[in-house]
């Protein structure tokens, strides 16, 4: 499999790079059967990175939802682990909100539909998966729109499953500022409400077209949630 994935990406050619993140580099590849896929390659052989990769495999193998990016396979036989996902041809929701797209209009109907399509996986992870799962990094740049502009939630590298009888996860604070639940930030206790808070920020982003953190807004309104609440109070 490692050999096929190497061929699929033209030996991980720079021209095939779709993006880079904390966990590794993401490539676009074509398998021998003609399928276009996304291949995530860990940056270096680091124990914590390896744990995140394996965690993502374990989490995604428990999920079956049409609005979640599908994990197609993995390769752990190489020194650097590889994950293979379905390819989503569209841009992220963040891009579609904050950049003009002549091919797609973010009408109110589309915004409402996208919000519903993101709410579905969040509710599924918390209430319908075989073991409850906290995503822990819900944000508009982790939501992709496919060729029909349907929302797909991605990036489960920091996600965690939790026993049904547990109410929270105590952990080192991780996440993205602007989307981070303030109670989690203060207590280090992540609950399902922390995911819901992050989803709420995405909703406000969809409603207003504003970024979660913006230095073009007044100092007291740099955080979108604060800005939105104060605007609601004023009106």
TrEMBL record:
Alphabetical keyword list: ATP-binding, Kinase, Membrane, Nucleotide-binding, Serine/threonine-protein kinase, Signal, Transferase, Transmembrane, Transmembrane helix
Cellular localisation: Membrane
PROSITE patterns (alphabetical): PROTEIN_KINASE_DOM, PROTEIN_KINASE_ST
GO BP of this protein: cell surface receptor signaling pathway
Superkingdom field: Eukaryota
Topology of the protein relative to the lipid bilayer: Single-pass type I membrane protein
Protein kinase domain segment(s): 12-235
Pfam families in UniProt: Pkinase
First-listed, main subcellular location of the protein, grouped into a coarse class: membrane
Protein name (database record): Protein kinase domain-containing protein
Coiled coil ranges: none
């Amino acid at each position: 499999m490692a050999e096929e994935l190497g061929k699929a990406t033209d030996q991980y050619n720079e021209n095939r790079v779709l993006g880079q993140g904390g966990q590794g580099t993401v490539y676009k590849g074509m398998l021998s059967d003609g399928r276009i896929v996304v291949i995530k390659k860990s940056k270096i052989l680091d124990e914590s990175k390896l744990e995140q990769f394996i965690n993502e495999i374990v989490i995604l193998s428990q999920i079956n939802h049409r609005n979640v990016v599908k994990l197609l396979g993995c390769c752990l036989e190489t020194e650097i682990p590889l994950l293979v996902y379905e390819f989503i041809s569209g841009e992220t929701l963040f891009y579609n909100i904050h950049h003009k797209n002549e091919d797609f209009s973010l009408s109110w109907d589309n915004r409402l539909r996208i919000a519903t399509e993101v709410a579905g996986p969040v509710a599924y992870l918390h209430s319908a998966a075989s073991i409850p799962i906290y995503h822990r990094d819900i944000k508009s740049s982790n939501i992709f729109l496919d060729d029909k502009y349907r929302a797909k939630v991605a990036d489960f590298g920091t996600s965690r499953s939790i026993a049904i009888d547990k109410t929270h996860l105590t952990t080192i604070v991780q996440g993205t500022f602007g989307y981070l639940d303030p109670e989690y930030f203060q207590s280090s206790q992540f609950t399902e409400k922390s995911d819901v808070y992050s989803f709420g920020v995405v909703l406000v982003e969809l409603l207003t077209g504003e970024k979660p953190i913006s230095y073009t807004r007044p100092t007291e309104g740099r955080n979108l949630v604060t800005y939105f609440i104060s605007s609601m109070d004023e009106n």
